[in-house]
From TrEMBL:
It comes from Patiriisocius marinistellae. Pfam families: Peptidase_M16, Peptidase_M16_C. Residues 1-19 form the signal peptide. Keywords: Hydrolase, Metalloprotease, Protease, Signal, Zinc. This is Peptidase M16. It comes from the Bacteria. GO terms for molecular function: metal ion binding; metallopeptidase activity. InterPro entries: Metalloenz_LuxS/M16, Pept_M16_N, Peptidase_M16, Peptidase_M16_C. The keyword Protease applies. One of its GO terms (biological process) is proteolysis. SUPFAM superfamilies: LuxS/MPP-like metallohydrolase. Belongs to the peptidase M16 family. Residues 48-172, 533-647 form the Peptidase M16 N-terminal domain. Residues 205-383, 677-851 form the Peptidase M16 C-terminal domain.
Length: 944
């Protein structure tokens, strides 16, 4: 987890004269926006910030420990992140495993994150569980160290190893960060190793190491705590004193001063990546730390170099040279130092020398031509919208306050720092460019596919990384919970047993207004005046399901091309016009819909809708942009072949739906299906976009009458007839009981997909199945997660789900497990599903009901969640009170209903198994499961 600089700019009130006047009929919260809070410090040194937000009956708690990987020692890397994992296990006054299991059962969510400089723990719960979360959070903070056992230590080592395998070892370009850190920072610098660390260091960790780390860094005086949401300040102060006041202060942790680095020479390195299909170039320049004034100018510089179609690097690399589909340039600042990064993943077969030359030319163009005032104003305007979006939930507010307090000593620091961006000039931007980029040394990495080392930059030196060998399962890798620790509880003047629930908050669905335009488009809206924002989307039925046979990806390409300008505006001009409003508009395609989504400041809704209208009704159909987008798609599809999880997901759908059903083919097509798509096909597909099968959804600081007036032009100009949606035949389900295996040589993990076609969202059984799945695979409290991760340490996560679709959707179990735990994991899943229905108890019924009902209290907090609610109403014909009805359905389900649903949709004998992993070591193992094993290639074809 990394602190976003964009979230630093919280308040940018009324800055931009080029935006339209404020609409007076809505509540004008733009005149002044701030995060009100109260701060106090306990006697033990814990700094506490309270923020009241009563818009939803929920509470968020965030705790930052001022210890990240920068406090580690060589030979003990990865320990801050490892300790975060350990902290979620046990504590003195909370039952074993409760942290991960009980919070979801209360209707809440929880997680943590570690980065170079800190560790954050956070939860969001319904307000009736407020004191419970203080109990569990404070116990993890101050009362966990005595409960750590050797068994728990060894189990968590396996979990962290699995996380590294999933995110680094089994991922294309996963080792790049390690290569850069080793060479950018001198040996011993706190940033010279990765946050996740080295596996040998983790494996060597002892109980003594854990205790030493806790005693040194987990004192109350080395942390900040934020509580945000539906709280009473006076009462919360008393509760914080009770639950957190007795935590030891801990030793003084001396602050680390900034440690920027300089390079005496440029270093060029290359690495042959087992998973990469495309060559990637990165250039990393050492810069400045967080909150340094120059960091803000560098952030803007990154946007100016590649953040728009008028940017110098985009024009040179993407448009002129056609070397890559996109360019990334950005500033990444941390507590001690910072980096400015240029990152380009090139098209297949492109020599990275060509990319490097194009970067040099693009930077030269930037120096000579600079940038326009509009480009700088666009960035400022977009940031204004983004910062409001960044505090649209109580959890995001908690993140903002707690990180600014702990790392800047001031929860208001981000608000104060808005002055930097408000007053930034072109001289500021060019000054940091000349100081940190122009003629400066850097680290350059060429990460190339193993088979094409010639694509690396000429003269690059080969980089080395430590790569784990995963063989047969070692005896010390078979881990479990083990016995609980024996210890004497820490004395307290308070009763530290679990507090009771408070009065249950009542779920109140947002008020929904509806309407209909003369052209047939339906309107659905929710007025919300918390922030001066509006979010909206138009969904048009069809999408990928209307792709002609053999041309899968046509809907996706059509949507993409509609973003690239209008009849009166080039793609670059359109992008700038929208950006100057601080707005965002994007046209995309899904399996069943084309959608136009966007966000804007409330005052700019009318102008934003004029651009929506223009994009929808006057597409440019630019042949050059079409060719570029098609090349970009080809690059993306080729890169997808390197991702084991993508390979598994795509081929699992193909197994269930067959190759003749649209769901059996990826939404954006394949290399074969997009090859024959022409601009003429795009124009023909465009005729499918009819308002008769469209719905407009809007949420935010805007009234119905204003929405209808703003859409009047679209209504009068956009005409169309009803579109005949295809009825597709599902194939016979004759693959049940088979296990399919796809070889990805050298995989450190096996990706598992297991399931069957189940139910459409329109089916009366859809919600019953959703409810019946909760105990099996619903989040971290589900049995799959609890057994495969918590009990065995085989995986980083394991879940099951049924997505909402008009078409019949699959019930799916998925996980990525350690390669040598493939067979044991399959056996556990097989047995768990086999016994799930018979073993389902009345206690499981009550737990399911409690968990889902309570989770609904926070189900509609964000704008996105509210848009989702409107989408469910419009797409599936649900009633305005459908959530209440679904809750009633749940409450009326008895044990027999659950058992019948499980038997009907989650019978093990009906499931199809797919494993994507290393054939050399695993295919002989999976054959021991006793199922027919059929080998496929990465495209889903049966291997002879």
């Amino acid at each position: 987890m990394k602190r976003s600089l964009l979230l630093s700019f919280i308040a940018l009130p009324l800055l931009f004269s080029n935006c339209s006047d404020t609409i007076s009929e809505e509540k004008n919260s733009e005149t002044e926006f701030k995060l009100d809070y109260e701060k106090f410090t306990l006697d033990n040194g814990l700094e506490v910030i309270l923020h009241v937000d009563k818009s939803d009956p929920i509470v968020a708690v965030a705790t930052v420990m001022h210890v990240g990987s920068n406090r580690e020692k060589p030979g003990k890397t990865g320990f801050a992140h490892f300790f975060e994992h350990m902290s979620f296990n046990d504590s003195e006054n909370v039952p074993v495993g409760a942290n991960r299991k009980m919070i979801p059962e209360w209707g809440g969510s929880r997680n943590g994150g570690t980065w170079t400089d800190g560790t954050i723990y956070y939860e969001v719960v319904p307000k009736d569980a407020f004191e419970k979360i203080l109990w569990i959070d404070s116990d993890r903070f101050g009362y966990m160290i005595n409960t750590v056992t050797k068994d728990a230590l060894e189990r968590e080592k396996q979990v962290v190893k699995n996380e590294k395998r999933q995110r680094v070892d089994n991922a294309p370009y996963g080792y790049t960060d390690e290569i850069i850190r080793k060479n950018l920072y001198p040996e011993g610098h706190p940033y010279s190793w990765t946050v996740i660390g080295a596996l040998p260091d983790l494996q060597a960790a002892t109980l003594e190491d854990v205790t030493e780390f806790y005693n040194e860094y987990y004192g109350a005086s080395n942390a900040s705590l934020v509580i945000a949401g539906d709280i009473d300040i006076a009462e919360t102060k008393e509760l914080v004193q009770k639950w957190f006041g007795e935590i030891p202060s801990g030793p003084t942790v001396e602050a680390l001063k900034p440690m920027p680095v300089t390079l005496n020479e440029t270093k060029s390195l290359y690495f042959k990546d087992n998973f990469a299909k495309l060559p990637e170039l990165r250039m990393v320049f050492p810069t400045v730390e967080n909150y340094n004034e120059d960091s803000y100018a560098l952030q803007v510089l990154g946007q100016l170099l590649s953040g728009s179609k008028k940017s110098a690097l985009y024009k040179e690399i993407v448009e002129e040279k056609k070397l890559a589909p996109r360019v990334g340039t950005y500033q990444s600042s941390n507590e001690l130092a910072g980096e400015f990064i240029i990152r380009i993943r090139a098209n297949e077969g492109i020599a990275l020398d060509n990319v490097k030359n194009a970067i040099d030319q693009g930077l030269q163009n930037f120096e000579e031509n600079g940038f326009t005032d509009n480009e700088l104003e666009r960035i400022k305007a977009e940031l204004e919208t983004q910062v409001y979006q960044g505090v649209a939930t109580v959890l995001n507010k908690a993140f903002q306050l707690v990180q600014d307090n702990e790392f800047a000593g001031d929860p208001e620091r981000s608000i104060k720092d808005t002055e930097y961006i408000k007053n930034m000039t072109r001289e500021d931007v060019m000054r940091v460019y000349k100081k940190y980029i122009k003629d400066q040394n850097y680290i350059m990495t060429s990460v190339i596919p193993q088979a094409t080392p010639e694509l690396a930059v000429n003269g690059a030196e080969e980089a080395t990384v430590w790569i784990e060998e995963v063989g047969a399962m070692a005896e010390n890798e078979e881990v479990g919970q083990g016995a609980e620790a024996i210890y004497e509880k820490t004395a307290s003047k308070y009763d530290r047993s679990e507090p009771d629930f408070r009065d249950a908050p009542l779920l109140k669905m947002p008020d929904v207004w509806t309407g209909k335009l003369e052209n047939g488009m339906n309107l659905y809206g929710i007025e919300n005046n918390e922030l001066p924002l509006v979010e909206f989307n138009i969904t048009i039925q069809g999408g990928h399901s209307l792709d002609p046979e053999g041309k899968a990806g046509l809907a996706s390409l059509t949507a993409d091309l509609m973003n690239e300008g209008t009849k009166t505006k080039s793609a670059a001009d359109l992008e700038e016009a929208i950006g100057l409003l601080g707005s965002n508009i994007y046209i995309g395609s899904g399996t069943e819909d084309i959608y136009i989504s966007g966000s804007c400041l409330s005052r700019n809704f009318e102008k934003t809708m004029t651009y929506v209208e223009e994009m929808l009704l006057q597409p440019r159909w630019d042949a050059t942009e079409f060719d570029r987008l098609k090349q970009e798609l080809e690059t993306s599809l080729k890169g997808r072949e390197a991702n084991p999880t993508a390979i598994a997901a795509i081929n699992f759908n193909k197994l269930l739906y067959g190759e003749n059903h649209s769901y059996g083919i990826p939404t954006n097509g394949t290399l074969e299906t997009i090859d024959g798509i022409s601009l003429g096909d795009i124009k023909q597909y465009y005729n499918n976009l009819s308002p008769k099968v469209a719905s407009f959804h809007v949420v935010g600081n805007i009234k119905k009458a204003r929405v209808e007036k703003a859409l009047s032009g679209l209504s009068s100009k956009w005409k169309g007839e009803n579109i005949a949606l295809k009825t597709q035949q599902l194939p016979s389900q004759d693959k049940a009981g088979n296990l399919y295996f796809i070889d990805v040589p050298g995989s450190k993990q096996s990706v598992l997909y297991i399931g069957k076609l189940a139910v459409s969202a329109n089916d009366e059984d859809a919600k019953k199945l959703d409810f019946a799945n909760e105990i099996l695979g619903g989040g971290s409290s589900g049995r799959l997660f609890q057994t495969l991760r918590i009990g065995k340490g085989y995986t980083y996560g394991a879940y099951s789900r049924v997505p909402n679709r008009k078409e019949v959707a699959p019930f799916t179990i998925s996980s990525s497990v350690r390669a040598n735990a493939t067979l044991p994991s399959l056996k556990i899943i097989e047995e768990m599903v086999t016994n799930y229905g018979n073993g389902f108890t009345q206690e499981d019924v009550e737990l399911t009901k409690n968990k889902i009902i309570k989770a609904n209290t926070r189900a509609f907090e964000s704008f996105g969640a509210k848009l989702g609610l409107l989408g469910n109403i419009s797409k599936y014909g649900k009633s305005m009170d459908y959530v209440d009805k679904e809750q009633a359905l749940l409450m009326n389900m008895n044990l027999e209903d659950f058992k019948n649903t499980i038997e009907k949709y989650i019978a093990e004998k009906d499931l199809v198994y797919l494993v994507v992993g290393d054939k050399e070591t695993q295919i002989s193992e999976v054959k021991k499961l006793g199922k027919p094993v059929i080998e496929l290639d990465i495209y889903g074809n049966i291997k002879k």
